Amino acid sequence: MIDYHIHTARCGHASGKMFDYVARACELSLREIGFADHLPLLFKQDPTLTMRIDQLGEYIQAVEDLKKEFPEIAIKAGIEADYLPGYEEETARLLKSYDFDFVIGSVHFIDGWGFDDSRYIDGYKDWDIYKLYTRYFGLVADAAKTGLFDVIGHLDLIKKYNFRPEADITPLVRDTVGAVKDAGACVEINTAGLRKPAGEMYPSADILRLCFESDVPITLGSDAHKPEEVGKDFDLAISAAKDAGYDRVAVFNKRVPQYISLDIF
Ligand code: ZN
Ligand code: FE
Ligand code: FE
Ligand code: ZN
């Protein structure tokens, strides 16, 4: 098993030492993990959301040190980058300055509104929910089209607080999944949604089937913000992957994907 979405305390809303995340992964006999802490935001600095730019080098170094400390597990240096319209070039530049194994691209903001942040949950009142989903999935498609990302993070994060539109969102999602396919990116099965009001993984079973039918590869992530969340609910993630039709998952080395069989998990 692999876990390709692990945070560190540098982001200001995760806890525990990196050592403990890796130790937990070893306890679970994971073969491979990827740290993917939050890349600094380019439109504001918020110590409760991301690390600072001057911490990036030290973050990468910490992963290198852990590789030596834990030869029994493969540890990758990834990053979770926000897709921020208008900041594509700056994001590209920042991503190029480090030798990441993989980059997760995530949409956490709509016109500066942090819709997945419980502090700003009031913002949902200002939206027609179907229009909100339309806007969100449009942004995710735009994120994929930048070509900056290897993995699209929590594809349907907009459901986090369980605000659900009445109308069918399949047409919106179909376009987004098409954009991910065209970009050659993966989606992740992210188990964090199970721990949130939405009560289900990102993406939903329906969307995952759409991804499979569109030939979009997957990877697996817990989005751990505490050591005990590493590998959380991966039995469910693996059955969801198999139910959708998948028999392999992607791992990354210096941004080049490789596929490993789900049967060995
Ligand atoms: Zn986070
Ligand atoms: Fe995220
Ligand atoms: Fe994350
Ligand atoms: Zn995330």
Structural notes for this entry:
It is a single chain. The protein starts with a strand and ends with a strand. The mean pLDDT is 97. It is globular and about 50 Å long. The longest helix is centred in the middle third of the chain and has 17 residues, at 129-145. The strands form three sheets. A seven-stranded parallel β-sheet has the order 1-2-3-4-7-8-9. It has one domain: Alpha-Beta Barrel (TIM Barrel). It has 265 residues and is α/β, with parallel strands linked by helices. Helix 4 (129-145) runs parallel beside helix 5 and helix 6 (205-213) crosses helix 7 (234-244). It has helices at residues 18-27, 56-69, 88-96, 129-145, 170-183, 205-213, 234-244, and strands at residues 2-6, 32-38, 74-82, 102-106, 109-110, 113-114, 151-152, 186-190, 218-221, 248-253, 256-261. The protein binds zinc ion (2 copies) and fe (iii) ion (2 copies). One zinc ion (ZN) binds at residues 7, 11, 13, 38, 225.
Topology:
Elements: E1 2-6, H1 18-27, E2 32-38, H2 56-69, E3 74-82, H3 88-96, E4 102-106, E5 109-110, E6 113-114, H4 129-145, E7 151-152, H5 170-183, E8 186-190, H6 205-213, E9 218-221, H7 234-244, E10 248-253, E11 256-261
Parallel strand pairs: 1-2, 2-3, 3-4, 4-7, 7-8, 8-9
Antiparallel strand pairs: 5-6, 10-11
Helix pairs in contact: 4-5, 6-7
The chain binds zinc ion (2 copies) and fe (iii) ion (2 copies).
